[in-house]
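FIELD: query
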Amino acid sequence: MAKPEELVFAPLGGVGEIGMNLSIYGLGNRQQRAWLAIDLGVSFGDEEHLPGIDLIMPDVSFLEKERKNLMGLVLTHAHEDHFGAIIDLWPKLKCPIYATQFSAALFEAKCAAERNAPKIPVTVVPSGGRVDIGPFNVEFIPVAHSIPESHALAIHTEVGTVLHTGDWKIDPTPIIGRPTDEKRLRELGDAGLLALIGDSTNAVRDGRSPSEAEVASSITELVKAAKGRVAVTTFASNVARLKAVAIAAKAADREVVVVGRAMERVVQVARETGYLDGVQSFRSAEVYGHLPQDKVLALCTGSQGEPRAALARIANDDHPEITLNRGDSVIFSSRTIPGNEKAVGAIINGLVLQGVEVITDRDQLVHVSGHPRRDELRDMIAWTRPQLLIPVHGEALHLNEHAKLARAAGVPRVLVCRNGDLVKLGPGDPGIIGQVPAGRLYKDGTILEDSKSRAVGERRRMAFSGCAFVAIAMTEQGELADDPAVELVGIPEKNKAGEPFDDLVFDAVVSTVEGLPKARRRDPDALAESVRRAVRSVINEHWGKKPPCLVHVLTV
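FIELD: result
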Protein backbone atom coordinates (compact mmCIF):
# COMPACT_ATOMS: atom_id res chain seq x y z
CA MET A 1 0.00 0.00 0.00
CA ALA A 2 1.20 3.53 -0.69
CA LYS A 3 2.62 5.55 2.16
CA PRO A 4 -0.32 6.89 4.24
CA GLU A 5 -1.29 10.41 3.28
CA GLU A 6 -4.17 11.14 5.60
CA LEU A 7 -6.09 9.92 8.62
CA VAL A 8 -9.88 10.07 8.31
CA PHE A 9 -12.85 9.41 10.59
CA ALA A 10 -16.48 8.59 9.79
CA PRO A 11 -19.33 7.85 12.20
CA LEU A 12 -21.75 5.26 10.82
CA GLY A 13 -23.97 5.36 13.92
CA GLY A 14 -24.20 7.12 17.27
CA VAL A 15 -23.91 10.72 16.04
CA GLY A 16 -27.14 12.71 16.20
CA GLU A 17 -28.64 9.87 18.24
CA ILE A 18 -28.08 7.89 21.44
CA GLY A 19 -27.16 4.28 20.69
CA MET A 20 -26.22 2.24 17.60
CA ASN A 21 -22.56 3.25 17.92
CA LEU A 22 -20.17 2.48 15.06
CA SER A 23 -17.15 4.62 14.16
CA ILE A 24 -14.48 3.95 11.56
CA TYR A 25 -10.98 5.34 11.09
CA GLY A 26 -9.16 5.17 7.76
CA LEU A 27 -5.46 5.52 7.05
CA GLY A 28 -4.04 5.83 3.55
CA ASN A 29 -4.72 7.76 0.37
CA ARG A 30 -7.99 8.39 -1.42
CA GLN A 31 -7.56 5.33 -3.66
CA GLN A 32 -6.98 2.87 -0.82
CA ARG A 33 -7.28 3.03 2.94
CA ALA A 34 -6.87 0.59 5.80
CA TRP A 35 -9.94 0.78 8.06
CA LEU A 36 -10.41 0.27 11.79
CA ALA A 37 -13.92 -0.07 13.25
CA ILE A 38 -14.77 0.94 16.81
CA ASP A 39 -17.86 -0.64 18.44
CA LEU A 40 -20.89 -2.14 16.71
CA GLY A 41 -24.03 -1.44 18.74
CA VAL A 42 -27.81 -1.34 18.60
CA SER A 43 -30.60 0.96 19.59
CA PHE A 44 -34.05 -0.27 20.47
CA GLY A 45 -37.27 -0.16 18.46
CA ASP A 46 -40.16 2.11 19.34
CA GLU A 47 -43.48 0.26 19.10
CA GLU A 48 -45.33 3.46 18.23
CA HIS A 49 -43.17 4.35 15.22
CA LEU A 50 -41.60 0.97 14.39
CA PRO A 51 -44.16 -1.68 15.37
CA GLY A 52 -42.63 -5.15 15.61
CA ILE A 53 -39.02 -3.93 15.31
CA ASP A 54 -36.87 -5.27 18.15
CA LEU A 55 -33.50 -3.68 17.38
CA ILE A 56 -32.03 -1.02 15.11
CA MET A 57 -28.49 -1.47 13.78
CA PRO A 58 -26.10 0.58 11.67
CA ASP A 59 -25.89 -0.15 7.96
CA VAL A 60 -22.48 -1.75 7.33
CA SER A 61 -22.68 -1.86 3.53
CA PHE A 62 -19.64 0.44 3.23
CA LEU A 63 -17.54 -1.86 5.41
CA GLU A 64 -18.77 -4.89 3.47
CA LYS A 65 -17.35 -3.36 0.28
CA GLU A 66 -14.12 -2.50 2.11
CA ARG A 67 -13.90 -5.86 3.86
CA LYS A 68 -10.45 -6.72 2.51
CA ASN A 69 -9.19 -3.41 3.94
CA LEU A 70 -10.98 -3.75 7.31
CA MET A 71 -8.20 -4.52 9.77
CA GLY A 72 -10.37 -5.17 12.81
CA LEU A 73 -13.19 -4.20 15.16
CA VAL A 74 -12.27 -2.89 18.63
CA LEU A 75 -14.76 -2.75 21.52
CA THR A 76 -14.62 0.06 24.05
CA HIS A 77 -16.96 -1.83 26.43
CA ALA A 78 -19.81 -4.34 26.53
CA HIS A 79 -22.98 -2.27 26.61
CA GLU A 80 -25.61 -3.21 24.04
CA ASP A 81 -25.39 0.17 22.30
CA HIS A 82 -21.71 -0.57 21.67
CA PHE A 83 -21.59 -4.34 21.00
CA GLY A 84 -25.18 -5.55 20.59
CA ALA A 85 -25.11 -5.78 16.76
CA ILE A 86 -22.05 -7.99 16.44
CA ILE A 87 -23.83 -11.36 16.35
CA ASP A 88 -26.08 -10.21 13.48
CA LEU A 89 -23.58 -8.15 11.50
CA TRP A 90 -20.20 -9.85 12.01
CA PRO A 91 -20.97 -12.49 9.32
CA LYS A 92 -21.05 -9.62 6.80
CA LEU A 93 -17.59 -8.43 7.91
CA LYS A 94 -15.68 -11.43 9.33
CA CYS A 95 -12.93 -9.21 10.70
CA PRO A 96 -10.85 -9.80 13.84
CA ILE A 97 -12.39 -8.48 17.08
CA TYR A 98 -10.38 -7.05 19.98
CA ALA A 99 -11.68 -6.54 23.53
CA THR A 100 -10.59 -6.80 27.14
CA GLN A 101 -11.42 -9.80 29.32
CA PHE A 102 -14.80 -8.82 30.77
CA SER A 103 -16.18 -7.60 27.44
CA ALA A 104 -14.99 -10.77 25.72
CA ALA A 105 -16.49 -12.99 28.44
CA LEU A 106 -19.84 -11.20 28.37
CA PHE A 107 -19.91 -11.44 24.58
CA GLU A 108 -19.18 -15.17 24.78
CA ALA A 109 -22.05 -15.62 27.25
CA LYS A 110 -24.34 -13.60 24.98
CA CYS A 111 -23.46 -15.84 22.03
CA ALA A 112 -24.03 -18.97 24.13
CA ALA A 113 -27.51 -17.74 25.07
CA GLU A 114 -28.53 -17.00 21.46
CA ARG A 115 -29.77 -19.76 19.22
CA ASN A 116 -27.61 -20.45 16.17
CA ALA A 117 -25.11 -17.68 16.96
CA PRO A 118 -22.07 -17.89 14.67
CA LYS A 119 -18.69 -18.75 16.17
CA ILE A 120 -17.00 -15.37 16.52
CA PRO A 121 -13.42 -15.34 17.80
CA VAL A 122 -12.33 -12.46 20.04
CA THR A 123 -8.72 -11.52 20.78
CA VAL A 124 -8.37 -10.51 24.44
CA VAL A 125 -6.21 -7.45 25.12
CA PRO A 126 -5.20 -6.56 28.71
CA SER A 127 -6.62 -3.40 30.25
CA GLY A 128 -4.03 -0.70 29.65
CA GLY A 129 -2.46 -2.80 26.90
CA ARG A 130 -1.63 -2.01 23.28
CA VAL A 131 -2.16 -3.98 20.10
CA ASP A 132 -1.11 -3.47 16.49
CA ILE A 133 -4.06 -3.76 14.09
CA GLY A 134 -2.79 -3.19 10.58
CA PRO A 135 -1.18 0.28 10.53
CA PHE A 136 -3.02 1.29 13.74
CA ASN A 137 -1.55 0.88 17.21
CA VAL A 138 -4.49 0.84 19.63
CA GLU A 139 -4.04 1.50 23.35
CA PHE A 140 -6.77 0.61 25.88
CA ILE A 141 -6.89 3.38 28.51
CA PRO A 142 -9.10 2.58 31.54
CA VAL A 143 -12.01 4.96 32.18
CA ALA A 144 -14.80 4.84 34.76
CA HIS A 145 -18.25 3.95 33.42
CA SER A 146 -21.29 1.92 34.46
CA ILE A 147 -19.83 -1.44 33.39
CA PRO A 148 -16.46 -3.05 34.13
CA GLU A 149 -13.53 -2.52 31.79
CA SER A 150 -14.64 0.51 29.85
CA HIS A 151 -11.79 1.99 27.85
CA ALA A 152 -10.94 5.06 25.90
CA LEU A 153 -8.89 4.10 22.85
CA ALA A 154 -5.74 5.96 21.92
CA ILE A 155 -5.28 5.24 18.21
CA HIS A 156 -1.63 5.84 17.37
CA THR A 157 -0.76 6.35 13.67
CA GLU A 158 1.97 7.91 11.53
CA VAL A 159 -0.24 10.96 11.09
CA GLY A 160 -0.85 11.45 14.80
CA THR A 161 -2.75 10.11 17.80
CA VAL A 162 -6.53 10.21 18.19
CA LEU A 163 -8.34 9.64 21.48
CA HIS A 164 -11.70 7.91 21.03
CA THR A 165 -13.18 8.26 24.52
CA GLY A 166 -16.00 5.74 24.33
CA ASP A 167 -18.36 6.13 27.30
CA TRP A 168 -16.65 7.54 30.39
CA LYS A 169 -16.90 9.69 33.49
CA ILE A 170 -14.58 10.81 36.28
CA ASP A 171 -15.24 8.74 39.42
CA PRO A 172 -12.47 8.48 42.02
CA THR A 173 -14.42 5.76 43.91
CA PRO A 174 -16.05 3.56 41.25
CA ILE A 175 -16.75 0.50 43.53
CA ILE A 176 -15.49 -1.82 40.76
CA GLY A 177 -12.60 -1.39 38.35
CA ARG A 178 -10.05 1.35 37.94
CA PRO A 179 -10.79 5.09 37.95
CA THR A 180 -10.32 7.07 34.75
CA ASP A 181 -6.56 7.10 34.09
CA GLU A 182 -5.82 10.81 34.44
CA LYS A 183 -2.05 10.25 34.42
CA ARG A 184 -2.06 8.47 31.03
CA LEU A 185 -4.47 11.00 29.52
CA ARG A 186 -2.21 13.86 30.61
CA GLU A 187 0.73 12.03 29.01
CA LEU A 188 -1.17 11.87 25.72
CA GLY A 189 -1.73 15.61 25.95
CA ASP A 190 1.96 16.22 26.68
CA ALA A 191 2.96 14.15 23.63
CA GLY A 192 0.51 16.05 21.41
CA LEU A 193 -3.02 14.86 20.62
CA LEU A 194 -4.29 15.27 17.08
CA ALA A 195 -7.99 14.79 17.84
CA LEU A 196 -10.44 13.97 20.63
CA ILE A 197 -13.60 12.09 19.56
CA GLY A 198 -15.73 12.53 22.67
CA ASP A 199 -18.84 11.35 24.53
CA SER A 200 -21.51 14.10 24.56
CA THR A 201 -24.35 12.35 26.42
CA ASN A 202 -24.38 14.68 29.44
CA ALA A 203 -23.03 17.82 27.77
CA VAL A 204 -26.18 19.70 28.77
CA ARG A 205 -25.71 18.98 32.49
CA ASP A 206 -23.64 21.24 34.70
CA GLY A 207 -21.25 20.08 37.39
CA ARG A 208 -20.01 16.54 37.87
CA SER A 209 -21.66 13.12 38.02
CA PRO A 210 -21.80 11.78 41.59
CA SER A 211 -19.75 8.70 42.44
CA GLU A 212 -20.92 5.08 42.56
CA ALA A 213 -19.76 5.04 46.20
CA GLU A 214 -22.36 7.70 47.06
CA VAL A 215 -25.09 5.62 45.43
CA ALA A 216 -23.95 2.52 47.33
CA SER A 217 -24.21 4.39 50.64
CA SER A 218 -27.68 5.68 49.80
CA ILE A 219 -28.98 2.25 48.75
CA THR A 220 -27.59 0.70 51.95
CA GLU A 221 -29.53 3.17 54.11
CA LEU A 222 -32.75 2.57 52.16
CA VAL A 223 -32.48 -1.22 52.40
CA LYS A 224 -31.66 -1.11 56.11
CA ALA A 225 -34.72 1.08 56.73
CA ALA A 226 -37.11 -1.16 54.75
CA LYS A 227 -39.61 -3.28 56.72
CA GLY A 228 -40.98 -5.71 54.14
CA ARG A 229 -39.54 -7.31 51.04
CA VAL A 230 -37.21 -5.22 48.89
CA ALA A 231 -36.70 -5.46 45.12
CA VAL A 232 -34.01 -3.51 43.26
CA THR A 233 -33.93 -3.11 39.50
CA THR A 234 -30.99 -1.76 37.53
CA PHE A 235 -29.14 -2.31 34.28
CA ALA A 236 -27.89 -5.90 34.49
CA SER A 237 -24.49 -4.87 33.12
CA ASN A 238 -23.83 -2.39 35.96
CA VAL A 239 -21.72 -4.76 38.05
CA ALA A 240 -20.69 -1.98 40.44
CA ARG A 241 -24.38 -1.39 41.20
CA LEU A 242 -24.95 -5.14 41.67
CA LYS A 243 -22.08 -5.18 44.17
CA ALA A 244 -23.50 -2.09 45.92
CA VAL A 245 -26.87 -3.85 46.26
CA ALA A 246 -25.14 -6.96 47.63
CA ILE A 247 -23.30 -4.83 50.21
CA ALA A 248 -26.60 -3.18 51.20
CA ALA A 249 -28.31 -6.58 51.55
CA LYS A 250 -25.52 -7.89 53.77
CA ALA A 251 -25.69 -4.79 55.97
CA ALA A 252 -29.45 -5.39 56.38
CA ASP A 253 -29.03 -9.18 56.93
CA ARG A 254 -30.89 -10.01 53.71
CA GLU A 255 -30.30 -12.71 51.08
CA VAL A 256 -29.95 -11.57 47.46
CA VAL A 257 -32.20 -13.42 45.02
CA VAL A 258 -31.37 -12.90 41.33
CA VAL A 259 -34.43 -12.69 39.06
CA GLY A 260 -34.10 -12.56 35.27
CA ARG A 261 -31.85 -14.31 32.75
CA ALA A 262 -29.87 -11.21 31.74
CA MET A 263 -29.05 -10.54 35.40
CA GLU A 264 -28.06 -14.18 35.97
CA ARG A 265 -25.76 -14.07 32.93
CA VAL A 266 -23.93 -10.91 34.03
CA VAL A 267 -23.56 -12.18 37.61
CA GLN A 268 -22.00 -15.39 36.32
CA VAL A 269 -19.54 -13.52 34.06
CA ALA A 270 -18.68 -11.05 36.85
CA ARG A 271 -17.87 -13.91 39.21
CA GLU A 272 -15.81 -15.72 36.57
CA THR A 273 -13.77 -12.57 35.89
CA GLY A 274 -13.25 -11.73 39.57
CA TYR A 275 -15.43 -8.64 39.81
CA LEU A 276 -17.62 -10.12 42.55
CA ASP A 277 -14.81 -11.67 44.59
CA GLY A 278 -15.65 -11.42 48.28
CA VAL A 279 -19.36 -10.83 47.56
CA GLN A 280 -21.74 -13.34 49.15
CA SER A 281 -23.35 -16.00 46.97
CA PHE A 282 -26.68 -15.03 45.43
CA ARG A 283 -29.74 -17.26 45.56
CA SER A 284 -32.02 -18.36 42.73
CA ALA A 285 -35.61 -17.18 42.36
CA GLU A 286 -37.05 -20.51 43.57
CA VAL A 287 -36.04 -19.79 47.19
CA TYR A 288 -37.66 -16.34 47.28
CA GLY A 289 -40.96 -17.51 48.70
CA HIS A 290 -39.27 -19.54 51.46
CA LEU A 291 -37.36 -16.59 52.93
CA PRO A 292 -38.84 -14.28 55.61
CA GLN A 293 -40.07 -10.96 54.23
CA ASP A 294 -37.42 -8.95 56.08
CA LYS A 295 -34.60 -11.29 54.99
CA VAL A 296 -34.88 -11.13 51.21
CA LEU A 297 -33.82 -8.69 48.46
CA ALA A 298 -34.78 -9.46 44.87
CA LEU A 299 -32.36 -8.14 42.21
CA CYS A 300 -34.53 -7.87 39.09
CA THR A 301 -34.28 -7.17 35.39
CA GLY A 302 -36.75 -4.76 33.81
CA SER A 303 -35.60 -1.25 34.78
CA GLN A 304 -36.51 0.01 31.28
CA GLY A 305 -40.03 -1.39 31.24
CA GLU A 306 -39.19 -4.39 29.05
CA PRO A 307 -42.49 -6.32 28.83
CA ARG A 308 -40.95 -9.78 29.23
CA ALA A 309 -38.51 -8.85 32.00
CA ALA A 310 -38.98 -9.85 35.63
CA LEU A 311 -40.24 -6.55 37.03
CA ALA A 312 -43.00 -6.16 34.42
CA ARG A 313 -44.32 -9.59 35.34
CA ILE A 314 -44.13 -8.76 39.05
CA ALA A 315 -46.02 -5.50 38.45
CA ASN A 316 -48.68 -7.47 36.55
CA ASP A 317 -48.78 -10.01 39.39
CA ASP A 318 -48.08 -12.88 37.00
CA HIS A 319 -44.51 -13.85 37.91
CA PRO A 320 -44.40 -17.55 38.85
CA GLU A 321 -42.06 -17.08 41.83
CA ILE A 322 -41.85 -13.41 42.86
CA THR A 323 -44.69 -11.47 44.47
CA LEU A 324 -44.79 -8.12 46.24
CA ASN A 325 -47.41 -6.85 48.64
CA ARG A 326 -48.44 -3.75 50.56
CA GLY A 327 -45.52 -2.51 52.62
CA ASP A 328 -42.84 -3.89 50.28
CA SER A 329 -40.41 -1.60 48.42
CA VAL A 330 -39.00 -1.40 44.89
CA ILE A 331 -35.90 0.69 44.15
CA PHE A 332 -35.38 1.80 40.54
CA SER A 333 -31.58 2.15 40.54
CA SER A 334 -31.56 3.38 36.96
CA ARG A 335 -32.49 6.24 34.67
CA THR A 336 -35.30 5.78 32.16
CA ILE A 337 -33.92 5.85 28.63
CA PRO A 338 -35.82 8.37 26.45
CA GLY A 339 -38.65 6.54 24.69
CA ASN A 340 -39.22 4.08 27.55
CA GLU A 341 -41.15 6.47 29.81
CA LYS A 342 -44.60 4.97 29.10
CA ALA A 343 -43.45 1.40 29.69
CA VAL A 344 -41.66 2.28 32.93
CA GLY A 345 -44.62 4.36 34.07
CA ALA A 346 -46.97 1.42 33.51
CA ILE A 347 -44.79 -0.79 35.73
CA ILE A 348 -44.59 1.85 38.47
CA ASN A 349 -48.38 2.26 38.38
CA GLY A 350 -48.85 -1.50 38.58
CA LEU A 351 -46.62 -1.67 41.65
CA VAL A 352 -48.31 1.30 43.35
CA LEU A 353 -51.73 -0.32 42.83
CA GLN A 354 -50.39 -3.34 44.73
CA GLY A 355 -49.47 -1.06 47.64
CA VAL A 356 -45.74 -1.20 46.95
CA GLU A 357 -43.54 1.80 47.77
CA VAL A 358 -41.58 2.82 44.65
CA ILE A 359 -38.29 4.73 45.02
CA THR A 360 -36.65 6.34 41.98
CA ASP A 361 -33.79 8.77 41.38
CA ARG A 362 -36.34 11.59 41.69
CA ASP A 363 -36.71 10.70 45.37
CA GLN A 364 -33.27 9.49 46.48
CA LEU A 365 -29.68 9.13 45.24
CA VAL A 366 -30.19 5.62 43.85
CA HIS A 367 -28.62 6.14 40.42
CA VAL A 368 -25.84 8.12 38.78
CA SER A 369 -25.01 8.41 35.11
CA GLY A 370 -21.95 6.77 33.63
CA HIS A 371 -21.31 9.78 31.37
CA PRO A 372 -19.40 13.03 31.98
CA ARG A 373 -21.10 16.29 32.86
CA ARG A 374 -19.73 19.65 31.77
CA ASP A 375 -16.97 20.02 34.38
CA GLU A 376 -15.70 16.54 33.56
CA LEU A 377 -15.66 17.40 29.84
CA ARG A 378 -13.57 20.46 30.69
CA ASP A 379 -11.14 18.26 32.65
CA MET A 380 -10.72 15.88 29.71
CA ILE A 381 -9.95 18.80 27.41
CA ALA A 382 -7.48 20.29 29.91
CA TRP A 383 -5.68 16.96 30.34
CA THR A 384 -5.39 16.04 26.67
CA ARG A 385 -5.27 19.48 24.96
CA PRO A 386 -6.46 18.20 21.54
CA GLN A 387 -5.87 20.17 18.35
CA LEU A 388 -9.35 19.10 17.17
CA LEU A 389 -12.48 17.97 19.03
CA ILE A 390 -15.41 16.15 17.41
CA PRO A 391 -18.48 15.57 19.63
CA VAL A 392 -20.12 12.14 19.23
CA HIS A 393 -22.49 9.89 21.20
CA GLY A 394 -25.41 12.27 21.48
CA GLU A 395 -28.38 13.90 19.82
CA ALA A 396 -28.05 17.24 18.02
CA LEU A 397 -28.48 19.28 21.21
CA HIS A 398 -25.80 17.30 23.07
CA LEU A 399 -23.33 17.60 20.19
CA ASN A 400 -23.91 21.33 19.88
CA GLU A 401 -23.47 21.96 23.62
CA HIS A 402 -20.28 19.86 23.71
CA ALA A 403 -18.94 21.84 20.75
CA LYS A 404 -19.71 25.20 22.41
CA LEU A 405 -18.03 24.05 25.61
CA ALA A 406 -14.92 22.91 23.68
CA ARG A 407 -14.62 26.25 21.89
CA ALA A 408 -14.96 28.11 25.18
CA ALA A 409 -12.27 25.84 26.66
CA GLY A 410 -9.85 26.93 23.96
CA VAL A 411 -9.77 23.89 21.65
CA PRO A 412 -8.25 25.27 18.41
CA ARG A 413 -10.67 23.46 16.08
CA VAL A 414 -14.10 21.99 16.80
CA LEU A 415 -16.10 20.12 14.16
CA VAL A 416 -19.66 18.83 14.42
CA CYS A 417 -20.49 16.07 11.93
CA ARG A 418 -23.28 13.64 11.12
CA ASN A 419 -23.45 9.93 10.46
CA GLY A 420 -21.88 9.28 7.07
CA ASP A 421 -19.63 12.34 7.02
CA LEU A 422 -16.04 11.51 6.07
CA VAL A 423 -13.79 13.78 8.13
CA LYS A 424 -10.12 14.38 7.42
CA LEU A 425 -8.29 14.54 10.77
CA GLY A 426 -4.82 15.22 9.40
CA PRO A 427 -2.29 16.12 8.30
CA GLY A 428 -3.17 19.76 7.65
CA ASP A 429 -6.51 21.42 8.19
CA PRO A 430 -9.32 19.08 9.27
CA GLY A 431 -12.71 19.10 7.60
CA ILE A 432 -15.50 17.09 6.00
CA ILE A 433 -14.14 15.81 2.68
CA GLY A 434 -16.91 13.49 1.53
CA GLN A 435 -19.62 11.03 2.43
CA VAL A 436 -19.78 7.28 3.00
CA PRO A 437 -22.99 5.22 2.97
CA ALA A 438 -24.70 5.29 6.39
CA GLY A 439 -28.17 4.17 7.35
CA ARG A 440 -30.15 1.80 9.51
CA LEU A 441 -31.03 -1.85 9.53
CA TYR A 442 -34.08 -3.17 11.40
CA LYS A 443 -34.08 -6.50 13.26
CA ASP A 444 -37.56 -7.75 12.48
CA GLY A 445 -37.96 -11.10 14.23
CA THR A 446 -35.10 -13.13 12.80
CA ILE A 447 -34.76 -11.02 9.63
CA LEU A 448 -32.59 -7.95 8.98
CA GLU A 449 -34.49 -5.36 6.94
CA ASP A 450 -33.36 -2.14 5.32
CA SER A 451 -34.89 0.93 6.96
CA LYS A 452 -36.74 1.61 3.68
CA SER A 453 -38.43 -1.79 4.05
CA ARG A 454 -41.97 -1.84 2.68
CA ALA A 455 -43.08 -4.12 5.52
CA VAL A 456 -42.27 -1.60 8.26
CA GLY A 457 -44.07 1.27 6.51
CA GLU A 458 -47.13 -0.86 5.82
CA ARG A 459 -47.21 -2.09 9.42
CA ARG A 460 -47.12 1.49 10.67
CA ARG A 461 -50.02 2.45 8.40
CA MET A 462 -52.04 -0.59 9.49
CA ALA A 463 -51.39 0.24 13.15
CA PHE A 464 -52.84 3.71 12.51
CA SER A 465 -55.81 2.92 10.32
CA GLY A 466 -56.40 -0.83 10.08
CA CYS A 467 -56.68 -2.66 6.77
CA ALA A 468 -59.39 -3.66 4.31
CA PHE A 469 -59.32 -6.97 2.42
CA VAL A 470 -61.49 -7.58 -0.64
CA ALA A 471 -61.74 -10.74 -2.77
CA ILE A 472 -63.61 -10.67 -6.10
CA ALA A 473 -64.44 -13.62 -8.36
CA MET A 474 -64.99 -12.65 -12.03
CA THR A 475 -66.09 -14.66 -15.05
CA GLU A 476 -64.07 -14.55 -18.26
CA GLN A 477 -66.85 -12.34 -19.69
CA GLY A 478 -66.18 -9.70 -17.02
CA GLU A 479 -69.17 -10.38 -14.77
CA LEU A 480 -69.23 -10.98 -11.01
CA ALA A 481 -69.31 -14.73 -10.46
CA ASP A 482 -70.41 -14.31 -6.82
CA ASP A 483 -70.76 -11.67 -4.12
CA PRO A 484 -67.46 -9.99 -3.24
CA ALA A 485 -65.89 -11.03 0.10
CA VAL A 486 -65.01 -8.14 2.39
CA GLU A 487 -63.03 -8.27 5.63
CA LEU A 488 -62.15 -5.18 7.64
CA VAL A 489 -59.44 -5.35 10.32
CA GLY A 490 -58.94 -2.56 12.86
CA ILE A 491 -61.75 -0.46 11.32
CA PRO A 492 -64.81 0.63 13.35
CA GLU A 493 -67.90 -1.54 12.93
CA LYS A 494 -70.25 1.37 12.20
CA ASN A 495 -70.10 4.99 11.04
CA LYS A 496 -71.61 7.95 12.91
CA ALA A 497 -75.06 7.18 11.46
CA GLY A 498 -74.88 3.59 12.70
CA GLU A 499 -74.38 2.08 9.21
CA PRO A 500 -72.11 -1.00 9.20
CA PHE A 501 -68.81 -0.36 7.45
CA ASP A 502 -68.99 -3.89 5.99
CA ASP A 503 -72.15 -2.90 4.09
CA LEU A 504 -70.73 0.45 2.96
CA VAL A 505 -67.59 -1.21 1.59
CA PHE A 506 -69.54 -4.07 0.00
CA ASP A 507 -71.81 -1.61 -1.84
CA ALA A 508 -68.81 0.44 -2.98
CA VAL A 509 -67.11 -2.68 -4.40
CA VAL A 510 -70.22 -3.84 -6.30
CA SER A 511 -71.04 -0.40 -7.71
CA THR A 512 -67.41 0.13 -8.76
CA VAL A 513 -67.23 -3.22 -10.58
CA GLU A 514 -70.56 -2.75 -12.29
CA GLY A 515 -69.69 0.82 -13.29
CA LEU A 516 -66.51 -0.16 -15.13
CA PRO A 517 -66.36 -0.89 -18.88
CA LYS A 518 -66.13 -4.63 -19.59
CA ALA A 519 -62.59 -4.27 -20.91
CA ARG A 520 -61.41 -2.95 -17.55
CA ARG A 521 -63.35 -5.61 -15.69
CA ARG A 522 -61.45 -8.28 -17.64
CA ASP A 523 -58.10 -6.71 -16.64
CA PRO A 524 -57.43 -8.00 -13.07
CA ASP A 525 -54.85 -5.30 -12.28
CA ALA A 526 -57.02 -2.43 -13.50
CA LEU A 527 -60.06 -3.84 -11.69
CA ALA A 528 -58.14 -4.29 -8.43
CA GLU A 529 -56.82 -0.72 -8.55
CA SER A 530 -60.28 0.76 -9.21
CA VAL A 531 -61.77 -1.21 -6.31
CA ARG A 532 -58.86 -0.29 -4.00
CA ARG A 533 -59.37 3.42 -4.66
CA ALA A 534 -63.13 3.16 -4.16
CA VAL A 535 -62.83 1.29 -0.86
CA ARG A 536 -60.30 3.75 0.58
CA SER A 537 -62.47 6.65 -0.57
CA VAL A 538 -65.69 5.39 1.02
CA ILE A 539 -63.96 4.58 4.32
CA ASN A 540 -62.31 8.00 4.35
CA GLU A 541 -65.67 9.67 3.66
CA HIS A 542 -67.27 8.03 6.69
CA TRP A 543 -64.27 7.78 9.06
CA GLY A 544 -61.67 10.33 8.03
CA LYS A 545 -58.88 7.75 7.56
CA LYS A 546 -57.60 5.93 4.49
CA PRO A 547 -56.55 2.39 5.47
CA PRO A 548 -54.43 0.17 3.24
CA CYS A 549 -56.67 -1.96 1.03
CA LEU A 550 -55.66 -5.30 -0.48
CA VAL A 551 -57.77 -6.54 -3.38
CA HIS A 552 -57.53 -10.07 -4.77
CA VAL A 553 -59.18 -10.75 -8.16
CA LEU A 554 -59.85 -14.34 -9.18
CA THR A 555 -61.02 -15.28 -12.70
CA VAL A 556 -63.27 -18.39 -12.82
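FIELD: remark
The chain has a mean pLDDT of 94.
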